[in-house]
Amino acid sequence: MTSSGMEFRMSKKRRAVVAVVFGLMLVTGCGAGKEDVVSHISRFQNALEVAGATPRIALSSPVEQMQTIKMELETLKLGFGASKPLRDARAKAVEGMGHTIQGFLAFMQGREAMSSYYFLESGEALQEAHALLSKCH
C-alpha cells in the first residue's frame, strides 16, 4: 500500500503489453509503423521511376498508381506509440508525393514551368521526410 492507503496494481498481462510497446518504441526509435511508411515511400519511388520513363501521352496510369500509394500512406494507421518524428515524416512524405503528382499533371498539360515548381517542392518535402525518418534508429 502507498502512504495514501491506495495501491496501484497492474496485471501481469498488462505489464507485459506495456513492456512490449515500450520495447518496440526503443527498438524502432519511432514506434510501430516506421516499416509501413518506408515501404510506401519505396513503392512510390518505384512508381516514380516508371513514370519518368513513360512518354507524356501514357502517364495517366503511372500517375494513378502514385495517387493510390499516396492515399494509402495518408490513411495508414500508425501503431500505438508512434513518435512525432514518424508522424511528421509521414506528413512530409504525403506532401512530397502530392507535389510530385501535381508536377506530373502539370507536365501532362504542357505546363512545364509549373511542373518544375512542383518537382522542386516535392524534392524538398521528401528530403525532410527522409531526415525525419533517419532520426528513427
Describe the structure.
With 137 residues, the chain is mostly helical. It contains five helices and no strands. It has helices spanning 12-28, 34-52, 60-75, 84-108, 112-134. Helix 3 (60-75) packs antiparallel against helix 4 and helix 4 packs antiparallel against helix 5. It is elongated, with a radius of gyration of 21 Å. Mean pLDDT is 82; it is low at 1-11 and 13-28.
Keywords:
137 residues, mainly alpha, 5 helices
- Strand segment count: 0
* Rough outline: elongated
Mean pLDDT: 82
Question: The biggest beta sheet, please?
Answer: none
Terminal residue distance: 40 Å
- Give the amount of beta strand, in percent: under 5%
Query: How do the helices and strands follow one another from N- to C-terminus?
Result: HHHHH
Count of discrete alpha- or pi-helical segments spanning 4 or more residues: 5
Please state the CA-atom Rg, rounded to the nearest Å.
21 Å
**Could you name the ranges where pLDDT drops below 50 across 5 or more consecutive residues?**
1-11, 13-28
Structural class computed from helices and strand pairing? mainly alpha
What helical percentage do the residues reach? over 70%
Describe the protein's topology.
Blueprint: H1 12-28, H2 34-52, H3 60-75, H4 84-108, H5 112-134
Produce a short descriptive summary.
This protein has 137 residues and is mainly α.
